[in-house]
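TL;DR need C-alpha cells for one chain.
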Amino acid sequence: MSLDATIWAWKQNLPATQKIILLSLADRCGEDFTCYPSQKRLEKDTCLNIKTIKANIKKLIDAGLVSDTGKRVGKTLSVKVYKVMVNSTREGSPKMDPLNNEASPILPESKPENGLPKLAQNRAIESTIIESPNKTKEKDLVDKAFDFIWTETLNLKREFPNGGSGSKKYAKITFEKLFNKDYFKKHTEEEFKNEVNDLFDLINREAEYSLHNLKSGNPFTPFERKAMTSILNAEEWRN
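>> reply
TL;DR here they are.
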C-alpha cells in the first residue's frame, strides 16, 4: 500500500462512485503507484458491480487520474495493471501535496457531501527530550504523516461551529513520541503507514458521528472540541 497514493486519492473532488474506486486502486498501489487488483477484489472493496466499476475506471482514465499501463498479469494474463497518476492535478483539488517537503498545503474550502465534508485531504518545533526517529527516511515519514493528519483534521473541524484541534506543537510532540526511534526498531515502514491510515479512519468515524448528531439537533458532538493531542494519547486506533 502506498500512503502517498491514498493521501492523493482522498484529495480528489470526485463523484462518490469514482472516489471509492480510486481509493480502492490507491490502497492496492506499490511505491511505483501501480496496482493490479482482480475484478472480484474491486467488487469486494467497493461493493459495486463490475459493470459500474469498469465504466467508472474508464472515466478516471479519461480524467487523467488513472492510466492503463497495457501490462497484464495473472495466470491467464487477464488482470490489468493500472497506474494511479499521483502527480496529476484537478480543478478544485489542493495545488500541493499535503506531504510535500518544501511547502505547506493549500487548503481547499470544505464542501459537505452526503453529510460529510470532502477531504482534501511548520515542521519547525522546539527541541524535546523525546527520542525522535532517525533524521533520514523515518523522520521524514513521520513529519509527512503528521502534517497530513493535522491538515485533514482541520478540514473536518470546519464543519462544526466551535471546532478546534488544540495546540499543533503539543500534538506534534505526542505524535513523535508514539512513532519514535524505538517504534521503528520494532515496526516496518509498511506497518507505520497502516497505522497512519487506521488513525485517519478513526478520525473520520468520530467526525461522522458528531456531524450526524449536529445535523439531527443532538448536542453531543465530542469530536467538535476534541484536541488532536487527546486523540493521539487515547491510541484507540490500535485497539
